[in-house]
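Q: Start with the shorter request: fold the first protein.
A: Done. Sequence, then structure:
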Amino acid sequence: MFTQLNPPLPVFIVDKGKGLAMGVIDYGPEHHLIWVTALDDSGEIWCAPNPKVRMQGNWTMGRGKPETGCGGRGE
Protein backbone atom coordinates (compact mmCIF):
# COMPACT_ATOMS: atom_id res chain seq x y z
CA MET A 1 0.00 0.00 0.00
CA PHE A 2 1.23 3.52 -0.83
CA THR A 3 0.15 6.48 1.28
CA GLN A 4 0.82 10.00 0.05
CA LEU A 5 1.75 12.35 2.89
CA ASN A 6 -0.07 15.67 2.70
CA PRO A 7 1.65 17.76 3.81
CA PRO A 8 5.08 16.16 3.35
CA LEU A 9 7.02 15.59 6.59
CA PRO A 10 10.51 16.99 7.24
CA VAL A 11 12.75 14.02 8.07
CA PHE A 12 16.41 13.13 8.47
CA ILE A 13 17.65 9.99 6.71
CA VAL A 14 20.66 8.42 8.43
CA ASP A 15 23.70 8.53 6.08
CA LYS A 16 21.80 10.69 3.52
CA GLY A 17 20.69 13.92 5.25
CA LYS A 18 17.60 16.10 5.52
CA GLY A 19 14.62 15.83 3.22
CA LEU A 20 10.86 15.81 2.82
CA ALA A 21 9.01 12.52 3.05
CA MET A 22 6.31 12.54 0.37
CA GLY A 23 4.91 9.07 0.90
CA VAL A 24 5.10 5.81 2.80
CA ILE A 25 5.08 2.31 1.31
CA ASP A 26 3.75 -0.49 3.52
CA TYR A 27 4.52 -3.99 2.25
CA GLY A 28 2.87 -5.64 5.25
CA PRO A 29 3.66 -6.97 8.73
CA GLU A 30 6.93 -8.71 7.79
CA HIS A 31 8.57 -5.56 6.38
CA HIS A 32 9.72 -2.13 7.52
CA LEU A 33 7.78 0.89 6.32
CA ILE A 34 9.56 2.54 3.36
CA TRP A 35 9.68 6.35 3.36
CA VAL A 36 9.77 7.99 -0.10
CA THR A 37 11.91 11.06 0.54
CA ALA A 38 13.27 13.93 -1.58
CA LEU A 39 16.65 14.97 -0.14
CA ASP A 40 17.24 18.70 0.42
CA ASP A 41 20.91 18.88 -0.63
CA SER A 42 20.94 16.76 -3.78
CA GLY A 43 17.30 16.64 -4.86
CA GLU A 44 17.60 12.86 -5.09
CA ILE A 45 14.59 10.75 -4.21
CA TRP A 46 15.31 7.77 -1.97
CA CYS A 47 13.18 5.01 -0.50
CA ALA A 48 14.48 4.72 3.06
CA PRO A 49 13.64 1.86 5.46
CA ASN A 50 11.95 2.87 8.71
CA PRO A 51 15.02 2.28 10.99
CA LYS A 52 16.96 4.95 9.01
CA VAL A 53 14.29 7.67 9.28
CA ARG A 54 14.15 10.34 12.00
CA MET A 55 11.85 13.34 12.35
CA GLN A 56 13.70 16.65 12.05
CA GLY A 57 13.84 18.88 15.09
CA ASN A 58 10.95 21.30 15.65
CA TRP A 59 11.48 24.04 18.21
CA THR A 60 7.77 24.94 18.35
CA MET A 61 6.80 21.35 19.12
CA GLY A 62 9.64 20.93 21.64
CA ARG A 63 11.41 18.26 19.56
CA GLY A 64 15.21 18.47 19.49
CA LYS A 65 17.55 17.51 16.67
CA PRO A 66 17.36 13.84 15.69
CA GLU A 67 19.96 11.33 16.75
CA THR A 68 21.72 10.24 13.60
CA GLY A 69 23.24 6.87 14.46
CA CYS A 70 22.10 3.32 13.94
CA GLY A 71 19.19 2.32 16.15
CA GLY A 72 18.62 5.91 17.31
CA ARG A 73 21.38 5.80 19.93
CA GLY A 74 23.55 8.58 18.45
CA GLU A 75 26.34 6.21 17.36
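Q: Next, the second protein, separately.
A: Sequence, then structure:
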Amino acid sequence: MEKQQILVVDDEEINREILMEMFHDDLDEYELLEACNGREAVQQIEDNHNLVLILLDVVMPIMDGFKVLEYMEERGLLKGIPVILITGETIQDSEGRAYAFGVADVIHKPFYPYIVKRRSKNIIELYQNKRNMEARLKEQEKEIRAQEKEIRETNEFMIDALSTVVESRSAETGDHTKRIKFYTRIMARHLMEHFPQYGLTPASVDAISRASVMHDVGKIGISDTILLKPGRLTPEEFEIMKTHTIIGCEILEKLYKDRTSEFYHYCYEICRHHHERWDGRGYPDHLAGDDIPISAQIVAVADVYDALVSPRVYKSSFTNVKAYEMIMNGECGQFSPDILECFRLAREDFFNIMEMIGVFEFS
Protein backbone atom coordinates (compact mmCIF):
# COMPACT_ATOMS: atom_id res chain seq x y z
CA MET A 1 0.00 0.00 0.00
CA GLU A 2 1.36 3.42 -0.93
CA LYS A 3 2.45 5.47 2.06
CA GLN A 4 0.88 8.78 2.88
CA GLN A 5 3.21 11.73 2.36
CA ILE A 6 4.08 14.66 4.61
CA LEU A 7 5.96 17.60 3.11
CA VAL A 8 8.14 19.76 5.36
CA VAL A 9 9.05 23.15 3.86
CA ASP A 10 11.58 25.41 5.66
CA ASP A 11 14.75 27.19 4.57
CA GLU A 12 16.43 26.32 7.88
CA GLU A 13 17.77 22.78 7.82
CA ILE A 14 17.61 22.48 11.61
CA ASN A 15 13.89 23.31 11.55
CA ARG A 16 13.27 20.70 8.88
CA GLU A 17 15.11 18.10 10.92
CA ILE A 18 13.13 18.93 14.05
CA LEU A 19 9.84 18.72 12.20
CA MET A 20 10.73 15.51 10.40
CA GLU A 21 12.03 13.93 13.60
CA MET A 22 8.53 14.26 15.06
CA PHE A 23 7.35 11.54 12.67
CA HIS A 24 10.37 9.26 13.10
CA ASP A 25 8.25 6.63 14.85
CA ASP A 26 5.66 6.75 12.05
CA LEU A 27 7.87 6.00 9.05
CA ASP A 28 5.95 2.79 8.37
CA GLU A 29 2.89 4.96 7.81
CA TYR A 30 4.31 8.18 6.33
CA GLU A 31 6.85 9.07 3.67
CA LEU A 32 8.59 12.30 4.63
CA LEU A 33 9.44 14.82 1.93
CA GLU A 34 11.30 18.10 2.34
CA ALA A 35 11.90 21.37 0.50
CA CYS A 36 14.14 24.33 1.42
CA ASN A 37 12.11 27.00 -0.41
CA GLY A 38 8.76 27.62 -2.03
CA ARG A 39 9.89 26.65 -5.52
CA GLU A 40 11.06 23.23 -4.32
CA ALA A 41 7.79 22.88 -2.41
CA VAL A 42 5.78 23.50 -5.57
CA GLN A 43 7.85 20.89 -7.40
CA GLN A 44 7.24 18.36 -4.64
CA ILE A 45 3.51 19.07 -4.75
CA GLU A 46 3.49 18.54 -8.52
CA ASP A 47 5.54 15.33 -8.33
CA ASN A 48 3.71 13.64 -5.43
CA HIS A 49 0.05 12.79 -5.29
CA ASN A 50 -0.50 11.26 -1.87
CA LEU A 51 0.18 14.30 0.28
CA VAL A 52 -1.80 14.36 3.51
CA LEU A 53 -0.07 17.33 5.19
CA ILE A 54 2.25 20.24 4.40
CA LEU A 55 4.21 21.96 7.19
CA LEU A 56 5.01 25.29 5.56
CA ASP A 57 7.39 28.04 6.65
CA VAL A 58 6.52 31.63 5.68
CA VAL A 59 9.78 33.51 5.23
CA MET A 60 11.97 31.72 2.67
CA PRO A 61 14.21 32.73 -0.24
CA ILE A 62 13.18 32.42 -3.91
CA MET A 63 9.49 31.83 -3.09
CA ASP A 64 7.92 32.39 0.32
CA GLY A 65 5.13 30.42 1.98
CA PHE A 66 2.34 32.72 0.85
CA LYS A 67 3.39 32.27 -2.79
CA VAL A 68 3.06 28.52 -2.25
CA LEU A 69 -0.42 29.07 -0.83
CA GLU A 70 -1.34 31.19 -3.85
CA TYR A 71 -0.16 28.37 -6.13
CA MET A 72 -2.26 25.83 -4.23
CA GLU A 73 -5.31 28.08 -4.12
CA GLU A 74 -5.25 28.66 -7.89
CA ARG A 75 -5.35 24.89 -8.44
CA GLY A 76 -7.92 24.11 -5.76
CA LEU A 77 -5.44 22.05 -3.75
CA LEU A 78 -6.07 23.62 -0.35
CA LYS A 79 -9.44 21.87 -0.07
CA GLY A 80 -7.79 18.46 -0.19
CA ILE A 81 -4.32 18.99 1.29
CA PRO A 82 -4.19 20.53 4.78
CA VAL A 83 -1.45 23.09 5.40
CA ILE A 84 -0.04 24.08 8.77
CA LEU A 85 1.72 27.40 8.44
CA ILE A 86 4.79 27.78 10.67
CA THR A 87 5.84 31.35 11.07
CA GLY A 88 8.15 33.59 13.12
CA GLU A 89 6.19 36.69 12.20
CA THR A 90 3.75 38.42 14.52
CA ILE A 91 0.16 37.23 14.59
CA GLN A 92 -1.05 40.49 13.05
CA ASP A 93 1.30 40.11 10.08
CA SER A 94 0.56 36.53 9.06
CA GLU A 95 -2.25 34.73 10.85
CA GLY A 96 -5.20 36.57 9.32
CA ARG A 97 -3.69 36.34 5.86
CA ALA A 98 -3.00 32.63 6.32
CA TYR A 99 -6.54 31.75 7.43
CA ALA A 100 -7.89 33.76 4.51
CA PHE A 101 -6.22 31.16 2.27
CA GLY A 102 -7.91 28.39 4.22
CA VAL A 103 -4.90 26.88 6.01
CA ALA A 104 -5.70 24.23 8.60
CA ASP A 105 -3.63 25.84 11.39
CA VAL A 106 -0.98 28.46 12.17
CA ILE A 107 1.90 27.71 14.57
CA HIS A 108 4.36 30.34 15.69
CA LYS A 109 8.06 29.88 16.27
CA PRO A 110 9.52 28.82 18.59
CA PHE A 111 7.26 25.76 18.70
CA TYR A 112 7.01 22.63 20.82
CA PRO A 113 7.45 19.58 18.58
CA TYR A 114 5.02 17.37 20.52
CA ILE A 115 2.30 20.04 20.15
CA VAL A 116 2.98 20.34 16.43
CA LYS A 117 2.81 16.56 16.07
CA ARG A 118 -0.46 16.32 17.98
CA ARG A 119 -2.02 19.06 15.87
CA SER A 120 -0.67 17.47 12.70
CA LYS A 121 -2.16 14.07 13.56
CA ASN A 122 -5.52 15.62 14.41
CA ILE A 123 -5.62 17.57 11.16
CA ILE A 124 -4.61 14.56 9.04
CA GLU A 125 -7.35 12.50 10.69
CA LEU A 126 -9.91 15.30 10.23
CA TYR A 127 -9.18 15.68 6.51
CA GLN A 128 -9.16 11.91 5.97
CA ASN A 129 -12.55 11.61 7.65
CA LYS A 130 -13.78 14.41 5.43
CA ARG A 131 -12.48 12.66 2.29
CA ASN A 132 -13.96 9.33 3.40
CA MET A 133 -17.31 11.00 4.02
CA GLU A 134 -17.23 12.69 0.62
CA ALA A 135 -16.37 9.36 -1.00
CA ARG A 136 -19.28 7.67 0.80
CA LEU A 137 -21.63 10.45 -0.23
CA LYS A 138 -20.54 10.11 -3.86
CA GLU A 139 -21.09 6.37 -3.68
CA GLN A 140 -24.51 6.87 -2.13
CA GLU A 141 -25.31 9.43 -4.83
CA LYS A 142 -24.38 6.87 -7.49
CA GLU A 143 -26.62 4.29 -5.83
CA ILE A 144 -29.50 6.77 -5.61
CA ARG A 145 -29.09 7.69 -9.27
CA ALA A 146 -29.07 4.01 -10.21
CA GLN A 147 -32.26 3.49 -8.18
CA GLU A 148 -33.86 6.54 -9.79
CA LYS A 149 -32.95 5.19 -13.21
CA GLU A 150 -34.47 1.82 -12.36
CA ILE A 151 -37.64 3.50 -11.07
CA ARG A 152 -37.84 5.68 -14.15
CA GLU A 153 -37.41 2.68 -16.46
CA THR A 154 -40.10 0.82 -14.52
CA ASN A 155 -42.41 3.82 -14.80
CA GLU A 156 -41.67 4.07 -18.53
CA PHE A 157 -42.54 0.40 -18.93
CA MET A 158 -45.81 0.87 -17.04
CA ILE A 159 -46.66 3.95 -19.05
CA ASP A 160 -45.90 2.27 -22.37
CA ALA A 161 -47.89 -0.78 -21.33
CA LEU A 162 -50.90 1.31 -20.31
CA SER A 163 -50.82 3.45 -23.44
CA THR A 164 -50.54 0.30 -25.57
CA VAL A 165 -53.58 -1.20 -23.82
CA VAL A 166 -55.55 2.01 -24.42
CA GLU A 167 -54.65 2.15 -28.09
CA SER A 168 -55.36 -1.56 -28.60
CA ARG A 169 -58.95 -0.88 -27.48
CA SER A 170 -59.52 2.25 -29.55
CA ALA A 171 -59.81 3.06 -33.20
CA GLU A 172 -56.65 5.13 -33.08
CA THR A 173 -53.42 3.93 -34.64
CA GLY A 174 -50.62 2.55 -32.51
CA ASP A 175 -48.45 5.59 -33.20
CA HIS A 176 -50.87 8.09 -31.66
CA THR A 177 -49.11 8.36 -28.30
CA LYS A 178 -45.72 8.40 -30.01
CA ARG A 179 -46.80 11.36 -32.11
CA ILE A 180 -48.32 13.14 -29.11
CA LYS A 181 -45.03 12.71 -27.27
CA PHE A 182 -43.13 14.22 -30.19
CA TYR A 183 -45.54 17.14 -30.66
CA THR A 184 -45.46 17.87 -26.94
CA ARG A 185 -41.68 17.88 -26.74
CA ILE A 186 -41.36 20.28 -29.69
CA MET A 187 -44.04 22.63 -28.33
CA ALA A 188 -42.55 22.58 -24.83
CA ARG A 189 -39.09 23.40 -26.16
CA HIS A 190 -40.44 26.43 -28.01
CA LEU A 191 -42.29 27.52 -24.87
CA MET A 192 -39.10 27.18 -22.80
CA GLU A 193 -37.09 29.19 -25.35
CA HIS A 194 -39.55 31.93 -26.23
CA PHE A 195 -41.68 32.24 -23.08
CA PRO A 196 -39.34 31.94 -20.08
CA GLN A 197 -42.05 33.27 -17.76
CA TYR A 198 -43.49 29.75 -17.59
CA GLY A 199 -40.30 28.51 -15.94
CA LEU A 200 -39.80 25.42 -18.06
CA THR A 201 -36.40 23.74 -17.94
CA PRO A 202 -34.91 20.92 -20.03
CA ALA A 203 -35.84 18.53 -17.21
CA SER A 204 -39.46 19.69 -17.08
CA VAL A 205 -39.73 19.61 -20.89
CA ASP A 206 -38.60 15.99 -20.77
CA ALA A 207 -41.01 15.15 -17.94
CA ILE A 208 -43.99 16.78 -19.67
CA SER A 209 -43.28 15.02 -22.95
CA ARG A 210 -43.03 11.64 -21.18
CA ALA A 211 -46.16 12.33 -19.17
CA SER A 212 -48.11 13.26 -22.32
CA VAL A 213 -48.63 9.62 -23.28
CA MET A 214 -50.90 9.25 -20.24
CA HIS A 215 -53.43 11.77 -21.55
CA ASP A 216 -56.04 9.18 -22.56
CA VAL A 217 -55.27 6.39 -20.08
CA GLY A 218 -58.78 6.81 -18.64
CA LYS A 219 -60.26 5.38 -21.84
CA ILE A 220 -59.49 1.99 -20.31
CA GLY A 221 -62.62 2.54 -18.25
CA ILE A 222 -64.89 3.45 -21.18
CA SER A 223 -67.05 0.66 -22.60
CA ASP A 224 -66.33 -0.71 -26.07
CA THR A 225 -69.79 0.22 -27.29
CA ILE A 226 -68.88 3.88 -26.87
CA LEU A 227 -65.14 3.76 -27.44
CA LEU A 228 -65.42 1.75 -30.66
CA LYS A 229 -68.70 3.16 -31.95
CA PRO A 230 -68.43 3.52 -35.76
CA GLY A 231 -69.94 6.97 -35.88
CA ARG A 232 -70.48 10.13 -33.92
CA LEU A 233 -71.46 9.82 -30.28
CA THR A 234 -74.84 10.91 -28.96
CA PRO A 235 -74.80 13.71 -26.36
CA GLU A 236 -75.35 11.10 -23.64
CA GLU A 237 -72.51 8.95 -24.94
CA PHE A 238 -70.24 11.96 -25.22
CA GLU A 239 -70.86 12.78 -21.55
CA ILE A 240 -69.72 9.27 -20.67
CA MET A 241 -66.69 9.61 -22.95
CA LYS A 242 -65.71 12.83 -21.16
CA THR A 243 -65.34 10.90 -17.91
CA HIS A 244 -62.12 9.35 -19.23
CA THR A 245 -60.31 12.40 -17.82
CA ILE A 246 -61.54 11.60 -14.30
CA ILE A 247 -61.06 7.84 -14.67
CA GLY A 248 -57.48 8.41 -15.81
CA CYS A 249 -56.69 10.42 -12.67
CA GLU A 250 -58.19 7.67 -10.49
CA ILE A 251 -55.91 5.15 -12.21
CA LEU A 252 -52.89 7.38 -11.61
CA GLU A 253 -53.75 7.76 -7.94
CA LYS A 254 -53.80 3.99 -7.56
CA LEU A 255 -50.57 3.48 -9.51
CA TYR A 256 -48.38 6.12 -7.88
CA LYS A 257 -47.51 5.96 -4.21
CA ASP A 258 -45.38 9.09 -4.37
CA ARG A 259 -47.83 11.78 -5.40
CA THR A 260 -45.33 14.54 -4.65
CA SER A 261 -43.10 13.78 -7.64
CA GLU A 262 -42.96 16.25 -10.50
CA PHE A 263 -43.63 13.50 -13.02
CA TYR A 264 -46.83 12.37 -11.27
CA HIS A 265 -47.88 16.02 -11.08
CA TYR A 266 -47.55 16.43 -14.85
CA CYS A 267 -49.28 13.10 -15.55
CA TYR A 268 -52.23 14.14 -13.41
CA GLU A 269 -52.48 17.63 -14.92
CA ILE A 270 -52.35 16.31 -18.47
CA CYS A 271 -54.73 13.42 -17.87
CA ARG A 272 -57.38 15.61 -16.23
CA HIS A 273 -57.07 18.89 -18.10
CA HIS A 274 -56.00 18.22 -21.71
CA HIS A 275 -59.59 18.87 -22.83
CA GLU A 276 -59.89 22.23 -21.05
CA ARG A 277 -60.05 25.30 -23.28
CA TRP A 278 -58.78 28.86 -22.85
CA ASP A 279 -62.32 30.32 -22.86
CA GLY A 280 -63.56 27.90 -20.16
CA ARG A 281 -65.67 25.78 -22.51
CA GLY A 282 -63.65 22.62 -22.06
CA TYR A 283 -64.03 19.79 -19.54
CA PRO A 284 -64.10 18.33 -16.92
CA ASP A 285 -63.60 21.37 -14.66
CA HIS A 286 -64.28 24.22 -17.12
CA LEU A 287 -61.00 25.89 -16.28
CA ALA A 288 -60.14 29.04 -18.20
CA GLY A 289 -57.03 31.03 -19.06
CA ASP A 290 -53.96 30.53 -16.92
CA ASP A 291 -55.90 28.32 -14.51
CA ILE A 292 -55.26 25.53 -17.02
CA PRO A 293 -51.88 23.92 -16.26
CA ILE A 294 -49.35 24.73 -18.96
CA SER A 295 -48.52 21.04 -19.42
CA ALA A 296 -52.17 20.32 -20.27
CA GLN A 297 -52.35 23.31 -22.61
CA ILE A 298 -49.42 21.98 -24.62
CA VAL A 299 -50.86 18.47 -24.88
CA ALA A 300 -54.29 19.84 -25.78
CA VAL A 301 -53.00 21.33 -29.04
CA ALA A 302 -50.96 18.21 -29.80
CA ASP A 303 -53.98 15.95 -29.23
CA VAL A 304 -56.34 18.08 -31.32
CA TYR A 305 -53.89 18.33 -34.21
CA ASP A 306 -53.28 14.57 -34.27
CA ALA A 307 -57.03 13.89 -34.16
CA LEU A 308 -57.56 16.20 -37.15
CA VAL A 309 -54.84 14.73 -39.37
CA SER A 310 -55.64 11.10 -38.47
CA PRO A 311 -58.50 9.14 -40.02
CA ARG A 312 -61.29 7.98 -37.71
CA VAL A 313 -64.21 5.62 -38.27
CA TYR A 314 -66.50 8.65 -38.28
CA LYS A 315 -64.36 10.97 -40.44
CA SER A 316 -61.53 11.14 -42.95
CA SER A 317 -58.29 12.93 -42.15
CA PHE A 318 -57.72 16.61 -42.77
CA THR A 319 -54.58 17.83 -44.50
CA ASN A 320 -51.76 19.23 -42.37
CA VAL A 321 -52.44 22.75 -43.61
CA LYS A 322 -56.19 22.51 -43.01
CA ALA A 323 -55.69 21.15 -39.50
CA TYR A 324 -53.21 23.93 -38.74
CA GLU A 325 -55.62 26.60 -39.96
CA MET A 326 -58.55 25.13 -38.00
CA ILE A 327 -56.60 25.29 -34.74
CA MET A 328 -55.20 28.77 -35.39
CA ASN A 329 -58.66 30.06 -36.35
CA GLY A 330 -60.29 28.71 -33.18
CA GLU A 331 -62.47 26.11 -34.92
CA CYS A 332 -61.40 23.46 -32.37
CA GLY A 333 -61.80 25.57 -29.25
CA GLN A 334 -59.81 28.46 -27.88
CA PHE A 335 -56.15 28.07 -26.97
CA SER A 336 -53.69 30.38 -25.23
CA PRO A 337 -52.03 32.96 -27.53
CA ASP A 338 -48.65 31.82 -26.23
CA ILE A 339 -49.44 28.19 -27.01
CA LEU A 340 -50.66 29.12 -30.47
CA GLU A 341 -47.42 31.00 -31.11
CA CYS A 342 -45.47 27.88 -30.15
CA PHE A 343 -47.71 25.89 -32.47
CA ARG A 344 -46.87 28.35 -35.26
CA LEU A 345 -43.16 27.97 -34.55
CA ALA A 346 -43.51 24.17 -34.55
CA ARG A 347 -45.61 24.08 -37.73
CA GLU A 348 -43.00 22.49 -40.02
CA ASP A 349 -42.05 19.87 -37.44
CA PHE A 350 -45.72 18.94 -37.04
CA PHE A 351 -46.13 18.67 -40.80
CA ASN A 352 -43.15 16.35 -41.06
CA ILE A 353 -44.12 14.08 -38.17
CA MET A 354 -44.60 10.91 -40.20
CA GLU A 355 -41.16 11.18 -41.75
CA MET A 356 -39.59 12.13 -38.42
CA ILE A 357 -41.06 9.14 -36.59
CA GLY A 358 -39.49 6.86 -39.16
CA VAL A 359 -36.05 8.40 -38.62
CA PHE A 360 -35.85 9.01 -34.86
CA GLU A 361 -36.49 6.90 -31.82
CA PHE A 362 -38.54 8.81 -29.29
CA SER A 363 -37.74 8.13 -25.65
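Q: Describe the second briefly.
A: The chain has a mean pLDDT of 87. Strands lie at 4-9, 30-35, 51-57, 83-87, 105-108.
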